[in-house]
Design a protein that fits this description.
alpha+beta, Beta-Lactamase, Helix Hairpins, 4 domains, 7-stranded mixed sheet, 6-stranded antiparallel sheet, 17 helices, 18 strands, 24% strand
Length: 522
C-alpha cells in the first residue's frame, strides 16, 4: 500500500511496523480533526516538516498539500514574528517540538504563494504522533481586522486633525470628547456656571435631549461668544446614546456682512447726496441759461443789424447746446443711480406721436429736410405705456437724425409685431401685449461699422467719441439705450457711410381696451 505520510504512521518507535489498517485510520482521524477546525491549520512532524494541512490553510496560503508536504514549516511559510527577531530560534514550532512546556501563541506574518504577506494570529500546540511529538499550528487571517483598525485610526486622525470643532455629549449634555479645535475654543472662552463650554449653545441640554428623542439632526444653531460667531450642527449617535456636535466658524462671514451693510448704507447716503447735488446744480445752471435765452430773444426784437443778429443766434445756439448737455448729464446720472422708474399710463398713441414729431418740423424745414411719419393701421389707438420715456427716446433719435442730415428726408415708421408667449413670462405683460417697432431713417452721412459698435457705449462717449460734428454718437443715444432696455425692449442701428442710417427700437406694449369696447365684445 502507499503510505500517506511516514511521519504520521509507518513505524512504531518501540519497534515493528504499524499495520496498514491502523495507519490508515490514524491518518483519517487526523485529517478529520484538521477539517473540523474553523481555522487554517498545519500538522508538523517531530522534525519540523509539514505533514498535513486543511483546505482553509491551502486557500489562505495558495499552496496545495502536495507542494508543501515534507517541507520545513518555518522555511515554507517564511514566518515573520511580531516584536521579535525573525530567526528559527524564535519560531514557536521548535519550542513545542522540543517539549519546553510552552503553548506559544501570538501574531506573525506569513508569505503566500502570490508573494503577498498575510498577518495572522497563531497558536501552536503539541500533537502526539507515532513517530514522536509533533505540533498543530493553527492560525487566523487578520488582514480584515488590520484594515479595519487602519481605517479606524484614519477616521480618528480626521477628527483630531480637523480644523472644525467637534464635541461628543452624553445624555446629560456633558462633553465626553473634544478634538483639539474644540479644546482650543474651551480654553479661549471658558465654561459657564453649568460647567459646559460657553462656545456651545446656551440651551444645549434641551437640544441634546430633543436630538436623541427625535433621532434627527438639528442644524443652523448660531452662537455668539466673545465677538465671534459659530454655527452648530447636532447629530444623534443612537447606538452609543450620544450627540456629536460640529461647529463652523462664521465670524468672518458675519463681519463681512456687517461691513457690506455699512458700505451699502454709506453708498445710499452718497447716492442721495449726489442726486440732490445734481438737482441743485440743474436748477442753478438752468435758471441763468434760461434768462440768457429770454434776453437774447428780447434783444433780437430790438431791430439789430445783421452782424448783431448773428451774434444773438450764436448765443442762443450755444445756450441750448449747454442746456441739452446738462439735461443729458442729469438723465445719465439718474439712470446710473437706478432712480428712473417706468410709469405706465393709458394714452392716445397717434396724438402722442403727432405732438412729438411736430416739434421737429421747424428745424427740419430750416435745413430743407422732409419729415414724414407713417403709423401702421395695425397699431391700436389706445396703448398702455410710459409716454414720457418713449417721448424721450424719440426726441433723442430725431435730434440725432436732423443734426447729421444735410439734405434729403427723415422718415419715422411705426408698426406692430406679435409677441411670443414665452416672452411674456416674468415681465408682467398679458395676452393683450405686443411689440411696437419704431424705425427712424435718414439720408445723412452714415456711420462706419467701427463707429456703430461704440454708438451706444457710454465709455466711448467719455473718451470723446461724438465730440466732432462728423461723428454720429452722443450721450442722447446712450441714454436712449438705457431707457429702452429699462422698458424691456431692444435698440439697434443699420448704416453705411454716405448712404444714411436707420435707427430702430422695439418695446413691449399693452393694448388698452376701453370699457365701452369691452362691453361690446360680450
Amino acid at each position: 500500500m502507499t503510505h500517506l505520510n511516514p511521519s504520521i504512521g509507518g513505524h512504531n518507535p518501540v519497534g515493528g511496523t504499524i499495520p496498514p489498517a491502523i495507519e490508515k485510520g490514524i491518518v483519517a482521524i487526523t485529517q478529520l480533526l484538521l477539517e473540523a477546525l474553523p481555522l487554517s491549520a498545519l500538522v508538523i512532524d517531530p522534525k519540523g516538516k509539514i505533514a498535513m494541512l486543511n483546505p482553509q490553510a491551502e486557500l489562505l496560503l495558495g499552496w496545495g498539500a502536495s507542494l508543501l508536504r515534507g517541507k520545513s514549516a518555518h522555511e515554507a511559510l517564511e514566518c515573520h514574528f511580531k516584536d521579535s527577531v525573525n530567526t528559527a530560534d524564535n519560531c514557536p514550532i521548535p519550542k513545542v517540538l522540543g517539549d519546553e512546556g510552552l503553548v506559544p501563541s501570538g501574531q506573525m506574518v506569513v508569505r503566500c504563494r502570490d508573494k503577498s504577506l498575510r498577518p495572522v494570529e497563531y497558536r501552536c500546540v503539541p500533537y502526539p504522533m507515532l513517530a514522536g511529538i509533533g505540533a498543530i499550528l493553527a492560525f487566523q487571517d487578520l488582514t480584515g481586522q488590520v484594515d479595519l483598525e487602519r481605517d479606524l485610526r484614519r477616521l480618528a486622525s480626521i477628527a483630531e486633525e480637523s480644523p472644525i470643532p467637534l464635541v461628543e455629549l452624553n445624555e446629560d449634555a456633558n462633553p465626553i470628547y473634544a478634538n483639539p479645535a474644540m479644546m482650543s475654543l474651551m480654553e479661549r472662552f471658558g465654561f459657564g456656571s453649568d460647567g459646559r463650554p460657553l462656545a456651545l449653545p446656551a440651551n444645549i441640554a434641551k437640544l441634546t435631549t430633543k436630538c436623541l428623542q427625535s433621532h434627527k439632526e438639528i442644524s443652523g444653531i448660531e452662537v455668539s461668544v466673545g465677538g465671534n460667531y459659530y454655527e452648530w450642527k447636532l447629530v444623534p449617535v443612537m447606538r452609543e446614546k450620544i450627540v456629536r456636535g460640529y461647529g463652523i466658524d462664521l465670524t468672518a462671514r458675519h463681519r463681512a456682512e456687517l461691513e457690506l451693510t455699512q458700505a451699502k448704507a454709506k453708498a445710499e447716503v452718497a447716492s442721495q447726496a449726489k442726486s440732490k447735488f445734481l438737482s441743485n446744480m440743474s436748477e442753478e445752471i438752468g435758471t441763468p441759461i434760461g434768462d440768457i435765452l429770454n434776453r437774447a430773444d428780447l434783444l433780437a426784437a430790438t431791430g439789430l443789424n445783421d452782424q448783431q443778429m448773428e451774434y444773438i443766434k450764436t448765443i442762443g445756439s450755444c445756450s441750448k447746446s449747454l442746456m441739452t448737455s446738462i439735461d443729458d448729464i442729469l438723465a445719465m446720472a439718474a439712470l446710473e443711480e437706478k432712480s428712473v422708474r417706468v410709469e405706465k399710463t393709458r394714452f392716445d398713441f397717434r396724438n402722442f406721436v403727432g405732438k412729438t414729431t411736430t416739434a421737429f418740423l421747424p428745424r427740419a424745414k430750416e435745413k430743407g429736410l422732409q419729415l414724414t411719419v407713417t403709423i401702421s393701421n395695425q397699431v391700436p389707438a389706445k396703448v398702455y405705456c410710459d409716454s414720457n420715456r418713449l417721448g424721450q427716446v424719440l426726441y433723442n433719435l430725431l435730434t440725432n437724425a436732423i443734426k447729421f442730415t444735410e439734405r434729403g428726408e427723415i422718415i419715422v415708421e411705426v408698426d406692430r409685431d406679435t409677441i411670443s408667449p414665452g416672452a411674456l413670462a416674468g415681465n408682467g405683460e398679458t395676452k393683450d401685449s405686443f411689440y411696437l417697432f419704431f424705425t427712424i431713417r435718414d439720408t445723412g452721412i452714415g456711420i462706419s461699422q467701427e463707429e456703430q459698435q461704440a454708438m451706444f457705449d457710454r465709455f466711448a462717449q467719455a473718451n470723446g467719441l461724438g465730440s466732432s460734428s462728423d461723428e454720429r454718437a452722443g450721450w442722447g443715444l446712450v441714454i436712449s439705450k438705457h431707457i429702452v432696455e429699462l422698458m424691456g425692449g431692444t435698440i439697434g442701428i443699420e448704416s453705411e457711410p454716405e448712404r444714411g442710417s436707420k435707427f430702430w427700437f422695439s418695446l413691449p406694449i399693452r393694448e388698452e381696451i376701453g370699457k365701452s369696447a369691452k362691453k361690446s365684445t360680450k
